[in-house]
Amino acid sequence: QVQLVESGGGLVQSGGSLRLSCTVSTEFFSSDIIGWYHQAPGKQREVVATIFHGGITSYPDSSKGRFTISRDDAQNTVYLQMESLKPEDTGVYYCNRIPPWANWGQGTQVTVSS
Description:
Helices cover 0% and strands 49% of the residues. The protein is mainly β. The strands form 2 sheets. It has a 6-stranded mixed beta sheet with strand order 2-10-9-4-5-6, with no helix packed on it. Strands 1-3-8-7 form a 4-stranded antiparallel beta sheet, with no helix packed on it. A hairpin with a 5-residue loop joins β5 (46-51) and β6.
């Protein structure tokens, strides 16, 4: 069973930055498409960043230009550098494959104060 461990969240003022990390225990991490998911209070999870095999990245408009996803395949780790944070970025952040494995990590809470 895949284990995912997210970290790096916290409380930050609007305009601030955070760097999230996620370690994934899977044998074939380097070939997996990995995403960072954001779950705002009372809403469904949505993908805010995707990284493909080889490092190609994709972002929705809500995070484009502010978030940067990267991966270290040797460490089975994916990162999310978040800049110019807004109050609407508040929520729990998870990493998972796209499409997701059945198992999810505990997530990491990000709170952006205005």
